[in-house]
């Protein structure tokens, strides 16, 4: 019981108390994630304003959680081992340094995430979903490498593309934000299911 009392005193001493409460917030956040993500969009999955991930490709939530955990551990050890305020306050510096080292290790060990682009659909077969496709109208469904599908804007100069017909995406027009397609036999699709 004396050990728990000493732990509680150290956890509630300055500056560990600040990080103890921050660690409780982090723990509550990750508990919500484990329970199905209720209310987890607080930091939008770690993406920045420009759509990029947090530090070194790690989500912001992971980086912040790691920093809080390191700061809490160092400040708790400082509060338990010494009465010197400067040594206790070193927790911030230790957290920053420890998080930076961990992020660099993660950058080396984790493969970089490949960002999908619209150009990835060029060369793929799609299925027309509108009644017709013309030079100024049409939509089709195309399958990505991960198995997901997307409905995209398509255009063609040829006739005969109607709902349910197969087409080959052969170009992407970035200015008009649509794909150019041509009629295509679905049996020849190299990305299609094996028969």
TrEMBL record:
Q: Which UniProt keywords apply?
A: Membrane, Transmembrane, Transmembrane helix
In which domain of life is the source organism classified? Bacteria
Query: Transmembrane stretches, by residue range?
Result: 12-36, 56-81
Q: What is this protein called?
A: DUF1449 family protein
State the organism named in the record.
Streptomyces chrestomyceticus
